[in-house]
Amino acid sequence: MSAAGPVDFVVEPAELHRFGAVLLSTIAMIDATHASRAGQPVALAYGIAALTPITLDIHKLALACFQSAGNYQSCENLLTPSFIKKFEEIEPALARGIAAGLFAVDKLVGGGESPVTATAVATASVAVAASIPALLGRLQRSSASQEILIETSSGVSGRQFTMYLPGTEYWLPLNSKKAFDLGSDLAAFAKPGVSAPERAAVQALAAEGFGTRPGDSLTLVGYSEGGIIGANLISSGAVTHLGGRVGGLVAVASPVSAAQLPEGTRVISIEHTDDPVPALDLAEHNSDSNWTTVKLAPVGLQTHELSSYQQSLSNLPTQQLAKLNEALAGITGGRQYGSAEITGFEAVRTRG
Amino acid sequence: MTGINLRQGSLTIAATALMELMKQTPGWDGPAKTEFDRQINEILGRLEEAAIRIDFVHYAEALAETALKEAAVVAVVL
Asked: Whole-prediction pTM value?
């Protein structure tokens, strides 16, 4: 075996910096193409969905160039990390800005937000959903009926409410009676406290008497747009305004990493590794003591489908699933058994 | 040159800039360069596919708009 020869660096760190800068500039060029589709809301939304995963990968490559340059120099580079930090700070704001622009376009073509009503349509007795797969089963039911579901049970320290919020049902940027449509999706993404589903959810919680008794606690469970709505209900203060407290949020396939939640809010974010939707806010939130991000390997090609998430969860090793259920117990207070009452609410826009 | 539509000018410029990056350091060789080129090529392929799909949606939407306008004209005439 021959001894390794001297290491010969054939690329200068300065060149790697330049490569990183060129890569970042291509992201700006790609983002600029969105403006050319401003008059066509469908093409615009599709363009953002198609190009965002690509720009994220270019961003990663640029960071790799900067990091490699730093390693070559074997010293701290004071300028580059601060530049990268600043860039990462503005990315979520950029994503929200794009959503706000799209929302404005939606209003121009006759969509946008409107008054909304939440009407109770059915009530049933069920077993308490005490595990992550059980929550996804309820979400599937909520998505199939396009209803906001509220599950109520009695706990040791007070009543436990769990609200299930479905994903976007209607994707055309035109007048729609459905609250979970493209318009509300964009409005919710742009800022909390505006979207029709958020207002419908508050009506539904009030109808169920949430916050009227001491110890009332709410767990929000949302799929896709439903996850953004859940995060917004917490960050806008709408839930605590009703008098109850927030247990936490379980978001499935939702871009919630950049959500501005009160400190200490417990969150479980379940994402597929190649589902572009959770990445739409151009941010990542690593797990910490209050926040659990679970990246699952998708099953099949429909990486954003709720059924695909259910399948991926069923393939999760028992230990990992137990850990996830433990995190859920931290949100719900550890309910395991017993019965609950579940009510479905239909959220309908009331404009003429 | 990739098949990216010239109408999407900025996408073409971005793709060209990415392709130029691969030619910048002829002396840089080895696994890192191979991986760098592979990733750039992969991004270029995805950009091209995305551009084609976006074009398709763009034309479909434009077509639907035109059809709606024509239907409105026919309705007024009738």
From this structure: 0.61
